[in-house]
């Protein structure tokens, strides 16, 4: 894919047909990125691509793929590795489950893991391996605040988003000094079709908990511009995240020692 004269390169956006992914596509096009839009709904992708091309003059290409399919995922990964025009990936595709953990179909949970974990991992690692030798590029992974409050939501979904958070932190540790920008975005409840597809509704929640999707993406990109590794758009005091990060680091020297902690040595 050749890029436009005014382009910053091509941004590959997964789950781009609606919601957070579609807004990312809009904002990145207006910043000057060409687009490679990935989702299952090719018709909706094509309409978005046509609109953004007409509005901004960037090139927008559609790649229809179901990321729960290993064959489709492989096609997207290979394109990411082979296309030198791609300078950014927004790993946004994912879905949730509103039924309680004890009522969930395990086959459906496998599909969730395929999209939320396997696909994100394959594409993020491929991007890191591709961008690092170039000394440039950007990887944005959409996680969730549920990674921090797993007791309150569906266990498998929160675990998938915890994976995305820790994967992002680990990738950053490997590529930050090689010129690759990495960010984990952690939305709270956002007004998209996500809840309806999962079998619920945001209208059942207190309105003060629900962020507009445009505000969410704009805040996330502001965090990206500021160089944040982890962006929690609704968190008023960034110092709270820093405190959590420092507490985790403080434990690090004692997480692997030769002897058990004293409290485990008592013999009754």
UniProtKB/TrEMBL annotation:
This is NADP-dependent 3-hydroxy acid dehydrogenase YdfG. Its EC number is 1.1.1.298, 1.1.1.381. It catalyses: L-allo-threonine + NADP(+) = aminoacetone + CO2 + NADPH; 3-hydroxypropanoate + NADP(+) = 3-oxopropanoate + NADPH + H(+). It comes from the Bacteria. NADP-dependent dehydrogenase with broad substrate specificity acting on 3-hydroxy acids. Catalyzes the NADP-dependent oxidation of L-allo-threonine to L-2-amino-3-keto-butyrate, which is spontaneously decarboxylated into aminoacetone. Also acts on D-threonine, L-serine, D-serine, D-3-hydroxyisobutyrate, L-3-hydroxyisobutyrate, D-glycerate and L-glycerate. Able to catalyze the reduction of the malonic semialdehyde to 3-hydroxypropionic acid. It comes from Methylobrevis pamukkalensis. Keywords: Oxidoreductase. GO terms for molecular function: 3-hydroxypropionate dehydrogenase (NADP+) activity. Belongs to the short-chain dehydrogenases/reductases (SDR) family. It is an enzyme of class 1 (oxidoreductase). Gene3D superfamilies: NAD(P)-binding Rossmann-like Domain.
């Amino acid at each position: 894919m050749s890029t436009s004269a005014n382009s910053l390169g091509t941004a590959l956006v997964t789950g781009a047909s609606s919601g957070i992914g579609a807004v990312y596509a809009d904002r990145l096009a207006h910043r000057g990125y060409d687009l490679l839009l990935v989702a299952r709904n090719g018709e909706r992708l094509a309409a978005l691509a046509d609109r953004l091309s007409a509005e901004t003059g960037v090139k927008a290409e559609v790649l229809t793929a179901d990321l729960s399919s290993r064959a489709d995922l492989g096609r997207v990964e290979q394109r990411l590795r082979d296309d030198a025009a791609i300078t950014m990936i927004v790993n946004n595709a994912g879905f949730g489950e509103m039924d309680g953990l004890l009522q969930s179909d395990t086959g459906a949970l496998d599909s969730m893991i395929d999209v939320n974990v396997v696909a994100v991992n394959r594409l993020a690692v491929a991007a890191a391996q591709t961008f690092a030798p170039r000394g440039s590029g950007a990887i944005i992974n959409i996680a969730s605040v549920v990674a921090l409050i797993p007791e309150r939501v569906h266990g498998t979904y929160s675990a998938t988003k915890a994976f995305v958070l820790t994967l992002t932190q680990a990738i950053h540790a490997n590529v930050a000094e090689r010129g690759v920008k990495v960010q984990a975005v952690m939305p709270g409840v956002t007004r998209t079709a996500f809840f309806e597809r999962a079998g619920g509704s945001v209208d059942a929640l207190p309105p003060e908990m629900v962020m507009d999707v445009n505000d969410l993406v704009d805040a996330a990109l502001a965090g990206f511009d500021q160089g944040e590794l982890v962006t929690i758009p609704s968190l008023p005091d960034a110092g709270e995240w820093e405190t959590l990060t420092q507490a985790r680091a403080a434990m690090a020297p004692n997480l692997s020692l030769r002897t058990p902690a004293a409290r485990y040595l008592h013999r009754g």
